[in-house]
Amino acid sequence: MTKQLLLLPGDGIGPEVTGQVRRVLDALDLDIETGEALFGGAAIDAEGVPVSDETVARALAADAVLMGAVGGPKWANQPYDKRPEAGLLRLREAMNVYANLRPARCFSALADASSLKRELVEGLDIMFVRELVGGVYFGKPRGIEELPDGERRGLNTHQYTTSEIRRVARAAFDLAKGRSGRVCSVEKSNVMEAGLLWREEVQRLRDQEYPDIELSHMLADNCAMQLVKNPKQFDTILTDNLFGDMLSDEAAMLTGSLGLLPSAALGEPGKPGLYEPIHGSAPDIAGQGLANPAAAILSLAMAVRHSFGDERAAGRIERAVEAAIEGGTRTRDIGGEATTEQMGSAIVQSL
Ligand SMILES: NC(=O)c1ccc[n+]([C@@H]2O[C@H](COP(=O)([O-])OP(=O)(O)OC[C@H]3O[C@@H](n4cnc5c(N)ncnc54)[C@H](O)[C@@H]3O)[C@@H](O)[C@H]2O)c1
Ligand SMILES: CC(C)[C@H](C(=O)O)[C@@H](O)C(=O)O
Ligand SMILES: [Mg+2]
């Protein structure tokens, strides 16, 4: 049956990298119908909101949604609920995509592009499972308020419930079964109650239902350090929304560039997934043809695997990205001079 893919190019380099995703889709000739909608700042400019109700409805009706990136200086002074990023959070929440898979793999040909020594990163293969629809990103109360003494107070609430922790932990354990079976759960249980509950519930689920999973726990500050000291000690890292955001950007540099890391955000089985490169709209290079489209194209591979169930085509896309890089085509972020378009062409030719 024809699968429905909704493309949300977004802002900055978003349209540049999703343009290359379209070329890969055309070359693959799969049974996929692709639609497109405005998102983020582009939607604010045209429709007055970062994501319209209609776009949310189309996303929920699709099999998968692939986003480029949102945000930029043009919209940075808007109130929070009118910013491009608020559209992304609304979409994640509406789609209830609580398990965000962010694989960080180091291509051998790129081990020298990493900011760490080749021997520390060669063969690196970490799977981050980031909780995506809870924690401090969504907790209430939030806001900035005036205090009687004239001071202002910014407030955000970090919170997790048992069920929110258990469902994402389950996703991590299930995923780890198909990998090495090792999961490291990361929080700050030494200073945060929500972190303590996280640790207890993850351990309880492991003891109740996943006796074969080798579970360890690590404090987030130590994890940030261990990632640059000895990243290959990790297989699957399970963590909350905020720590997952930061640690996955850190891990991107182990692989060579933020422009290489894809992601898949998944909810309950049978529901559409949301796929996005982990990078942002990169205002510093937007519109110059400098963006690396690999993260977006690898996100397409994740969509093809997880939402369309086509492992063969997913592998084909991943091998093509690796072959293009091994063949020497490199955008500037990974030490070359290829444009976004040239990188896309090399990937399409390697399919
Ligand atoms: N999922 C998303 O849509 C998403 C993710 C992160 C940031 N953002 C938004 O993007 C805007 C810019 O944020 P930022 O500058 O902190 O982060 P960023 O990820 O956009 O850029 C960080 C650095 O990485 C580089 N970079 C990112 N992607 C690249 C690519 N594909 N190829 C080559 N280089 C790449 C950029 O040039 C920049 O130097 C902000 O508005 C932020 O909120 C959106
Ligand atoms: C743009 C922003 C809301 C987003 C996040 O913090 O989740 C981004 O940094 C990401 O990594 O997807
Ligand atoms: Mg981020």
Automatic annotation (TrEMBL):
Protein origin, superkingdom: Bacteria
Enzyme class: oxidoreductase
Required cofactor names: Mg(2+); Mn(2+)
Pfam families: Iso_dh
Residues given in the record as NAD(+) binding sites: 72-85, 280-292
Pathways per UniProt: Amino-acid biosynthesis; L-leucine biosynthesis; L-leucine from 3-methyl-2-oxobutanoate: step 3/4
Chemical reaction(s) catalysed: (2R,3S)-3-isopropylmalate + NAD(+) = 4-methyl-2-oxopentanoate + CO2 + NADH
GO process annotations (BP): L-leucine biosynthetic process
Residues under site feature: Important for catalysis: 137, 188
Residues the record lists as binding substrate: 92, 102, 130, 221
Coiled-coil region: none
Major localisation: cytoplasm
GO cellular component, one term: cytosol
Keywords, ordered alphabetically: Amino-acid biosynthesis, Branched-chain amino acid biosynthesis, Cytoplasm, Leucine biosynthesis, Magnesium, Manganese, Metal-binding, NAD, Oxidoreductase
Membership in a protein family: Belongs to the isocitrate and isopropylmalate dehydrogenases family. LeuB type 1 subfamily.
Task of the protein: Catalyzes the oxidation of 3-carboxy-2-hydroxy-4-methylpentanoate (3-isopropylmalate) to 3-carboxy-4-methyl-2-oxopentanoate. The product decarboxylates to 4-methyl-2 oxopentanoate.
Protein's name in the database: 3-isopropylmalate dehydrogenase
Organism expressing this protein natively: Pacificimonas flava
